[in-house]
Amino acid sequence: MTTFRATRADGEAILQAFAPRMGRRYANGRNTDRGPGAHKAVSVLSPYIRRRLVLEQDTVALALATHGPEEADKFVQEVIWRGYFKGWLERRPQVWHSYRAGLEADLSTLDRDRRLRRDVERATDGQTGLACFDAWAAELRETGYLHNHARMWFASIWIFTLGLPWRLGADFFYRHLLDGDAASNTLGWRWVAGLHTRGKPYPAEAQNIAAFTAGRFAPRPSDLAEVTQGLETTEPDGLPPVLPLRAISDPDPGRPTALLITDEDCRVEDFDLAALEIRTTATLSGSHLRSVLPVSDLVTRFEAEALADAARRLDANAVSMQAADPAALAKWAVAAGATQIATPYVTQGPLRDWLDQAAPALARAGIALCEWRRDWDTAIWPHATAGFFKVRQNIPRILKQVLA
Q: How far is CA 365 from the centre of its chain?
């Protein structure tokens, strides 16, 4: 069974061990889901990249150095996908807010509708009677991980065969995936539903599942719905307009600083901390914000370990905080005599929402919230305005910008 230890050292060890397989072996084997403990053709680095215990540019640089641009092309594209999704949601934050509002409505319906509640419980408990789907539900709950192909099949079956609300499925994933982030999870489910690339839903097909699960599953075509239309009619006005990237302020070296570490980026040592007058350091746990429903212990434990590992590399006296009362953030900074909080950029998602709620208290206390944005994001996000094709076309330019 795949197990994960949330340290930078463990992530980098996995990265180095997978380097020989980042070329043709990855390209040829990446689509096959061999099941728990047998995910050897894929890197399983996503929980580490999600928290930047391992950096995307380091991963891509190693793949190119080991295999060259032609053989590493597919692996490099897959690493860049996560940056594309993050940038896309940064440019369309309305989609995140719509998801949260829709989920709240779906959960309210779930409370009232006994039949829907029964059907959702059967799906999340792996009791639908469809062997492949039930196995994936169990693997997700027990390990916090699913092969990417299995995620697509699962979401398609959830939406089109079981006829369940897509946001409830996305919430189930988000509560259990170690690598879950707001962009990849929300947009991945939207993509399957035909809402991201509008009118092009992803069908789970019996033949495809049989071919790419190494013979573990062989559903009958009649077990699965024929997908002829996505859910695009639920958003008749189409996608919201692309917005400029959110403006940020770099930390001011002349101001006393409170350093904040979140699991959005656990490599804070990469930034120029020596230039700052740091009065206090804190880790901020926020995995519980993913959902109003219980978040997996695997997720919260991985976050806690990642934050503790980040703190050990920076400040043995770092304070541990939880994102609860937003006003507590200002109180922490004021108590240390800080007039600014410095933290790596926090993307659209529940922690960003919480920081926005904390903004009035910070303003009243005269505390500036300053963020560093990584070069990787700066290179990719301007291209993340439509489908992935636009980003893919610009990969040579992106890599030249970040690997120079």
A: 32
The closest of 362, 375, 148, 130 to 258, measured between CA atoms, is 362
The DSSP result for 305-343, as a single string, is HHHHHHHHHH-TTPEEEES--THHHHHHHHHTT-SEEEE
Following DSSP, what letter does each residue of 204-227 receive, concatenated? P-HHHHHHTTTTS----GGGS---
Query: pLDDT-derived band of residue 2, with 50, 70 and 90 as boundaries?
Result: low
What is the three-class DSSP state of 128?
coil
Whether residues 262 and 277 share a domain: the answer is yes
Same domain? 216 vs 277: no
Tell me, what's the pLDDT at 366? 98
**The one-letter amino acid at 285:** S
State whether residue 248 is helix, strand or coil. coil
CATH number at residue 362: 3.40.50.620
Using CA atoms, how far residue 109 sits from 163, 165, 350, 365, in Å, is: 15, 10, 22, 40
What DSSP string describes 148-166? HHHHHHHHHIIIIIS---H
